């Protein structure tokens, strides 16, 4: 759980980047996953309510050559969807970026909690002898 505050974006990026580096994920995949979590978290902070605790949940799970990043919040009046921002727009590109970088993304609802998730392909660095990535692992920002 993280505070429902813009400063949480940098915290989540750092935790995710550290975990993926520790797990031996290649730098370009780390960059993609970190950008995706940034966009999901920024959108939640901009458009949704905090969880009942007043916080926001950010988690990721590494399995089968992918990392699933997920941001859970208290929901909003509208459903998250990728839009097509005008060239002159200052915003509105977040889920479009997620859609481009992620293999898949979606929204889950559990009562008043909304979770937006994205599945990003991760690979071991070129020249690495490993045939697989780390054992399935789940992390949550604390």
TrEMBL record:
Keyword Transport attached: no
GO terms, molecular function: ATP binding
Domain Histidine kinase/HSP90-like ATPase, first and last residues per copy: 3-117
CDD domains attached to this UniProt entry: HATPase_RsbW-like
Gene3D superfamilies per the UniProt record, alphabetical: Histidine kinase-like ATPase, C-terminal domain (3.30.565.10)
Family annotation (SUPFAM superfamilies): ATPase domain of HSP90 chaperone/DNA topoisomerase II/histidine kinase
Alphabetical UniProt keywords: ATP-binding, Kinase, Nucleotide-binding, Serine/threonine-protein kinase, Transferase
PANTHER family per the UniProt record, alphabetical: ANTI-SIGMA-F FACTOR RSBW, ANTI-SIGMA-F FACTOR RSBW-RELATED
Protein name per the record: ATP-binding protein
The species this protein was found in: Planomonospora corallina
């Amino acid at each position: 759980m993280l505070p429902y505050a813009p400063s949480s974006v940098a915290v989540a990026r750092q935790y995710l980047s550290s975990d993926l580096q520790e797990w031996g994920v290649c730098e370009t995949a780390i960059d993609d996953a970190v950008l995706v979590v940034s966009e999901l978290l920024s959108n939640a902070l901009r458009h949704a309510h905090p969880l009942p605790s007043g916080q926001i949940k950010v988690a990721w799970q590494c399995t089968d050559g992918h990392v699933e990043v997920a941001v859970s919040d208290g929901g909003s009046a509208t459903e998250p969807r990728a839009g097509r921002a005008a060239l002159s727009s200052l915003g509105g590109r977040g889920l479009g970026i997620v859609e481009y970088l992620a293999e898949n993304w979606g929204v889950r609802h559990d009562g008043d909690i909304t979770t937006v998730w994205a599945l990003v392909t991760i690979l071991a660095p070129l020249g690495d002898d490993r045939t697989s990535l780390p054992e399935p692992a789940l992390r949550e920002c604390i």
